[in-house]
Design brief:
SH3 type barrels, 1 helix, 109 residues, 5 strands
Length: 109
């Protein structure tokens, strides 16, 4: 096999590694971090799209309260995401003070 052919094969394998293998490993690590960070009281959404709050943790399962007095047992790996708690709104998003007495500018439009 010639040197350019061998180089092409090495470049192809390197390309496949960065396109296929590396992102998959990253997703697996993120999933493992999510599963290990679950705690009672976390708001979660399951892979099936059910929203709820974790009430109890077990080795392979999680009890999720989806409505008052309605708890379902869900496999840990079926937890799709943890919903971050709603914090105070940014001050930038607050409505502008309407007591501004400055004159309106007409741009001649």
């Amino acid at each position: 096999m010639s040197a350019p052919g061998l180089l092409l094969i090495v470049v192809a394998f390197g390309f496949l590694y960065f396109i296929l293998v590396r992102p998959q490993k990253r997703r697996q690590l993120e999933s493992q971090r999510l599963m290990s960070s679950l705690a009672v009281g976390d708001e979660v959404v399951t892979a099936g799209g059910v929203y709820g709050r974790i009430t109890e943790l077990a080795d392979d399962a999680v009890l999720v309260e989806i409505a008052p007095q309605v708890t379902v047992k869900v496999a840990r790996r079926a937890i799709g995401a943890v919903i971050p708690p709603a914090g105070p709104e940014d001050e930038d998003d607050a409505p502008a003070d309407e007591t501004d007495d400055s004159p309106a500018v007409d741009n001649g439009g």
